[in-house]
Specification:
Blueprint (H helix, E strand, L loop, with lengths): L3 E3 L1 H7 L3 H7 L4 H9 L9 H11 L3 H4 E3 L5 E2 L4 H6 L2 E2 L3 E5 L6 H14 L3 E5 L9 H5 L4 E3 L2 H11 L5 E6 H5 L2 H9 L7 E6 L17 E4 L2 H5 L12 E2 L9 H27 L9 H13 L8 H4 L8 H13 L7 H4 L6
Parallel strand pairs: 5-9, 5-10, 6-7, 6-8, 8-9
Antiparallel strand pairs: 1-2, 3-4, 10-11
Protein name: F0F1 ATP synthase subunit beta
GO molecular function: ATP binding; proton-transporting ATP synthase activity, rotational mechanism
Keywords: ATP synthesis, ATP-binding, CF(1), Ion transport, Membrane, Nucleotide-binding, Translocase, Transport
Length: 348
């Protein structure tokens, strides 16, 4: 079947408050979100759902559904992100987290890493002040802007020869300013702008579609953060449209799906252990539990921006190495290793 995906940028432009609009015509916001990220393939979507979205956007189905357009992935060399929810170059990424889960540290690390790849970073400062960690983020930013007009001017000036990564708080999403900026930038002769939307207040966790349609969603996990399993990005619920079509090597998609299946069952078994202890796990499931432990440990990673606090040197892991390591863990090649031996390391 021909690769199909929603025209997310058109939806953002035409229907800025997609959550309310979807509910008003009987669509579940979660369904719309999953269609935007590709978690629900277009080929499996109900015709009435697509027709309803086209009606909201006041466009034809041909305009709403893009055919055969390839994505380009930005490889971060951060294991969890690249394997489970890669960045779509030129797309919009939403970070869903409460304060203290590490979203600003992840963003700081991304800016640090992508600067070495030639990207120019921008941050639109929130109107309110006093957010812990924001100053640390700004240390790794090339350009700090204080208004949408300022952002448009400087991105237009500096984005002609360099790819841009741009971050803004959800407060600017709720006003519609971010989507207006993205629309205006389409008329400028610039390269690509990859946008990161975060929620400094931590309210996005309680919303079904907190940022509107997105190419990538990173859901941060309270349990991982509480157990210091950083980066605390949930590998099961985080997703990216780049993985839901024939855009990447099939081995990547296969290993990602196998890893999610293992981690999903491991989390169920952890719940049993928390109540009954290790003896509560059936013998037939013991191998699954221990391999899940090892995989969860492996997905932790030392960050460059945190070296002064952790005493551990940051590491890069190529995507192909992550895929191979995860495959070996799932297949039992590291069954002799303790989870602690796989925690906060690079490639195996």
């Amino acid at each position: 079947m021909e690769d199909l995906r929603l025209n997310v940028s058109l939806l953002r432009k035409r229907v800025p408050n997609l959550t309310s609009a979807a509910k008003s015509i009987g669509l579940r916001p979660a369904t719309v979100s999953n269609l935007c990220t590709g978690k629900i393939p277009i080929g499996r979507a109900e015709v009435r759902t697509l027709a309803a979205l086209a009606s909201l956007a006041q466009c034809s189905l041909d305009e709403l559904i893009l055919k055969g357009e390839a994505f380009e992935m930005i490889e971060t060399k951060i294991k969890t992100l690249d394997l489970f929810a890669p960045i779509v170059k030129g797309g919009t990424i939403g970070l869903v987290a409460r304060p203290g889960m590490g979203q600003l540290v992840v963003l700081s690390e991304l800016f640090f890493r992508l600067k070495k790849e030639g990207y120019l970073s921008f941050v639109l400062q929130p109107e309110a002040e006093g957010y812990p960690g924001l100053e640390d983020l700004n240390e790794h930013v090339d350009v700090i802007v204080t208004s949408i007009a300022d952002a448009l001017k400087k991105i237009s000036e500096l984005g002609k020869d360099r790819d841009i990564i741009f971050a803004a708080d959800r407060s600017h999403v709720l006003t519609g300013e971010i989507f207006e900026l993205q629309e205006k930038l389409q008329d400028e002769a610039i390269r690509t702008v990859t946008t990161f939307l975060l929620d400094l207040k931590g309210e996005a966790v309680d919303e079904e579609l907190p940022y509107g349609p997105l190419e990538t969603v990173w859901n941060f996990d309270a349990d991982l953060a509480a157990r210091f399993r950083f980066p605390a990005v949930n590998p099961i619920s985080s997703t990216s449209s780049i993985l839901e079509g024939a855009y990447l090597d099939q081995s990547h998609i296969t290993v990602k799906q196998r890893a999610q299946k293992l981690l999903r069952r491991y989390r169920e078994l952890r719940s049993l252990v928390n109540v009954k202890g290790i003896a509560g796990i059936p013998d037939a499931e013991m191998q699954t539990y221990h391999r899940g432990e090892r995989l969860e440990a492996y997905l932790t990673q030392p960050f460059y921006v945190a070296e002064a606090f952790t005493g551990q040197k940051g590491v890069d892991v190529e995507l192909k190495e992550t895929i191979e390591d995860v495959r070996k863990i799932i297949d039992g090649a590291y069954d002799s290793k303790e989870p602690a031996e796989l925690s906060f390391v690079g490639k195996l």
